[in-house]
Specification:
With about 325 residues, the protein is of the alpha+beta class. The termini are far apart.
Amino acid sequence: MLTKSKQVWEMPWSEITPEGVYRSRREFLQMAAVGSAGLAAGSVLAGCEARPEAAQAPLAFTKNQAYAVADPLNTFEEVTNFNNFYEFGTAKDDPARYASALTTKPWTVKVGGRVAKPGNYTYDDLVKPQTLEERVYRLRCVEAWSAVIPWIGFPLADLIKRVEPTSAAKYVAFTTLLRPNEMRGQRTGALDWPYVEGLRLDEAMHPLTLATVGLYGKELPNQNGAPIRIVVPWKYGFKSIKSIVSIEFVEKEPPTAWNIANPPEYGFYSNVNPERDHPRWSQRRERRLGGFLANIPTVKFNGYGDQVASLYAGMDLIKYY
């Protein structure tokens, strides 16, 4: 007899260990193991083997102080060993374990839809004309963990202007690479592959929205979305789509992966909002990656409200979640 495995979003909350409890247990056990072995204390995550920073090629960039934050940075090891990237598995350490199988060179992004200059653009076509800059952004994930990361990239608006959207373009649709022979999670039914996301055109054009190619001074590691991803810092992390191979300019709101999977829990906008809880957990507090407790109050729009609140003037952000 064939049995159907439950998807992540089909499991009742009683069957899922709360994120904070799960992580605290693992981190406690790891720290205890390190202590008993007499090893030097460091920034380590349980069950993970850190990818050496030296393995990533350095990038030439300038630091943009306009996007600095007061919060201390998370470490390279924390940010590269605890990820949501279901293409490599649903466990937080799966991407670090398995993403080395991904081939990122050569890389092409198809740009199409309602634009004057559609085409297949190589990574160099997209990146080399740009002046790369480092921006320190907060990232807030829907499971209530957060991080502070020095991303390297260029405004997505610069790319959009180059391809000249027509007046019919109202939204931008993004698609992640589909390559199940290298992305082992795509051999499962965890999501409807390939992963797709979208933004309203004004969101995509906002100066905060970053076409991202690196972090911590070097190229993006595979598990963080190499070779090019989007970072939208006022939205939950799943909106910041990774390893993109397609950008399409469309007239109507495009489908998005998590909304396809579970519409009641994941809306199109997905702005960070402590006033709208996820149906299975609160969004009012968050746990900084590397910490033990969800003791940081969540700030609306992830703290970027002064810059982006005007995009949603008059909208009911409980309804349009």
